[in-house]
């Protein structure tokens, strides 16, 4: 990726500030407003990934506010049983559209962004249009990078064989 970015620098700003300002800073602001000593977070060890790897158990002490992860030990089967027992209705993103995990819709940092874009184009066209209006240049850049990456892989295979 570095090679591609050096030879094809983006002509748009790249930043993760929307995560910082819309989620992280807002959460910190609410915590600092006071009156809270524990924050509950819906993180499961079974999810894997960075979020799950960051923690080793269901409770941790922090700077002024502790964190409790009440579903930390839930396995996928526990989650399914809970949902069946309490009649949890899941988003159509999962039940109809086939998405496995969602974050902020249309986020260019999503490793599966092109699949997500195709899904929302098919099922939520107005949302697709809004995401494209906001992040369109980054989607185009991602497509160019993926084409470049495939070309490099093909070149490597042809010189190796």
Task: Walk me through what this model shows.
The structure is a single chain. The protein is mostly helical. It has 2 domains: 37-88, no CATH class; 90-161, no CATH class. It is 56% helix and 5% strand. The protein contains 7 helices and 3 strands; from the N terminus they run H-H-E-H-E-E-H-H-H-H. The protein has helices at 2-7, 17-32, 49-54, 76-86, 92-95, 113-123, 125-160, and strands at residues 38-40, 59-60, 66-68. Strand 2 and strand 3 form a beta hairpin.
List keywords for this structure.
7 helices; 161 residues; mainly alpha; 3-stranded mixed beta sheet
Summarize the structure.
This protein has 161 residues and is mostly helical. The chain has helices spanning 2-7, 17-32, 49-54, 76-86, 92-95, 113-123, 125-160; strands at residues 38-40, 59-60, 66-68.
